[in-house]
Amino acid sequence: MLIKWLIILVLMVAGDFGTVGAAPAYHSMMNPVEGELEVTSDFGWRTHPIYGTQKFHSGIDFGYDYGMPVHAASSGTVTTAGWVSGYGYLVAIDHGSSIETLYGHNEMLTVTVGQTVQMGDVIAYAGSTGNSTGPHCHFEVRLNGEPVNPWDWLSGTPPSGAGGMMMDEDIVAVNYDAYYDFCKPIREMTEKIAEVCTKGLRIIQDNLRWLFWALMTIDIAIQGLGMLLGEDRNAIYISRWLASKCIFYGFLTYLFWHWGDLANILRDYFVTMGAFATGNDYATAGKILSDPAAIVEIGARYVGPIFEYLGTMWGISIMFHLPTVIICLLTIICVLACFFYIGIMIAMAYIEFYCTALFSLLGFSFTPFQGTRSFGATAITGLVMSTIKLMVMTVTALLLVVALKDSVPKDYFDTSVQSVAAGGNFQSVEEFAAAIRQVETGGCEDPYHTPSADGYGYGAYQISYSNWESWCAEAGITPAPDMPWPPEVQDVVAKHKMQVLYEQYGNWHDVAIVWNAGSVVSWDEAYWQKVINSGGMRIEKTIKLTVLLKMMLVALAAMIFGHEDCKVIMELFAGYGFRFKRQGMIRGFRL
């Protein structure tokens, strides 16, 4: 009996894991990239590589290859993890004391908002998203919201000053939560049930204490009366009996009033075991456990590049690549369905755990009386069962994340540079737009800010001033209030208009004629020849079907593993205790 008490005490002590706080960043930060540093653009004023104008660069650009890991420069809490205008996929970390670091232009993110990270943790994989001309890591340090020289922090010296400069881009976060918003009601429901169960536990404790003490009194009275009326009534035996009862009832009373703490300790203990078993940290396991939407978000990030790949296709391209499109869609469905299923199962196990913790206290209240002591064993067995089930689901989620961890976007595709096919066989509006841009302003030093020779047009595509506002409206864009027109807006407006014209005329030949002359009536074969002989190049991305197949198989295997393991857990711990008690080997877990 004493050994069983010690086992429970060990669980209580071993499970008490604290939360590691974020260290302030006044000490030296580590470099966010690996290997020898290649600075492609330093902190300070520069000629912007895209806009061609003088702008203040608010960080340091480190040349970095696609898919290389980006590390947290210091410990802190993630405040932004998603697409941000200009920065592409961005991670922002709050280090306390009004210090923040930003990591931009990533290909893929591995963290979520609210997650605590330690110095050196991998938070993203490098890429060239947003306003970027090649793969690199944009590293930025902000003090009181203003950018400061990152070298002052990377070198370990105190910051040179709090004064900042105007930044390249304003941070305007895109709603990346659209991937997993449908899981937020589940998260809110689990949080609400946890809150209700916590409050309900206090109410039940106040009401059950009278039953608990009454059964304790009855048990002492019956056993004490039996000893007084029995033959063995020596003082030593009675003293030992009273001492053992004081220890036993004191222990039960402690458990009764700290039942909620015991439940949380058991939960943390088993979740931590799951984190250790999969090589993950406790914070990651806890985030997955307490927020089902987080696991769905992770799945969405894995299939995000596939979504983007499909988004580059249109009309004819979809028909040419129909088998690939179908496989991509199946992969997206399988991966998202798997992460969604595991998220739902974790939410259900989480709700079951709190409900079990609440109602098992009723059974534990009968423990003081010897005749009903098995009810307490059942209560503890049920609580342990629910925590083990939580651990199994957490391990399943962590194993899935570990299995897909090496699947970075650069591994999804084979990339090659190819010439645009002769004869006007353009495969996308991007290819056609590149050819038009080459013909219109290809020889100019700054094509996006070049007026036409006749004074009627402007920019890389020589769009007429009279058409600019109406074309912007057609593309759903608010025109720039004054000159110059932003390059990215020119690209969007021109490609949208070209797509509209292609849908109207059905071939690129007529689109080129209309673009140059305004109508197909004004036939200009020479302009068409310039377009098809522009010598434009395109980057061809071919998705690797073997990688997609691997992702599908891993997702399906994880789903089956989680489902079957839950069945085994329910069968093993069903009813009043372990399954093998039915064979007469043991009669439950008794106190």
TrEMBL record:
GO terms for molecular function: metalloendopeptidase activity. Pfam families: Peptidase_M23, TrbL. One of its GO terms (biological process) is protein secretion by the type IV secretion system. It comes from the Bacteria. The chain crosses the membrane at residues 210-230, 242-260, 318-342, 349-369, 375-404, 545-562. SUPFAM superfamilies: Duplicated hybrid motif. Keywords: Membrane, Signal, Transmembrane, Transmembrane helix. Residues 55-150 form the M23ase beta-sheet core domain. InterPro entries: Cell_wall_metabolism_enzyme, Conjugal_tfr_TrbL/VirB6, Dup_hybrid_motif, M23ase_b-sheet_dom. The keyword Signal applies. PANTHER family: L-ALA--D-GLU ENDOPEPTIDASE, PEPTIDASE-RELATED. This is TrbL/VirB6 plasmid conjugal transfer protein.
